[in-house]
Amino acid sequence: MAPSTVSFTLPALRMTLRISPVCRRITPSTSSPSLVRCCEYCGRLGGETGTIKNAKKAVPVKYTVDCSKPAGDSIFDTAAFEKYVHDRVKVDGRTNNLGSTVSIVRNGASLTITAAPGTVAKRYVKYLTKKYLKKTIVSEWLRVVAVSKTGYELRYRSLNIDDDAAEEDDE
Fold first, then answer.
1. InterPro entries from the xrefs (predicted)?
2. pLDDT tens-digit profile of 139-157?
3. Are residues 41 and 96 in the same domain?
4. Per the domain annotation, does 171 fall within a domain?
């Protein structure tokens, strides 16, 4: 059951105002007792009961981590990375709580994390990837780069080997 709205009448203005329980905006109240939208400003769901005809369905978000370059050079183990992410992902503040909201699938040398909106953020996927790189001691050679709105790629860091060799020759 949705939280109820608070409405009050102002005799001087000859109108009834309501305070939205969701966003706490004060808006003129509608004549219908069952409110479908919270207010015209935020459009969040609120009120008591009702159905929405043009509501959007929650589309799951797919995040990908492309590990093809380091996996092709046998530096990176994609299966171990999949297990690490599966064991470490937190849903509702708890690990091993994936349920039907989050699924992790390995496609060759890339990892796809499909999640319900709001359960796993793209930044969290990058955090877990960087943490795994640090754990396996390859973070010195690899970095995580965003390649699209929902994807990351593991790339090699540019190492200045020529500068190090020149300094050793000078000594």
1. Ribosomal_eL22, Ribosomal_eL22_sf
2. 899 999 999 999 999 999 9
3. no
4. no
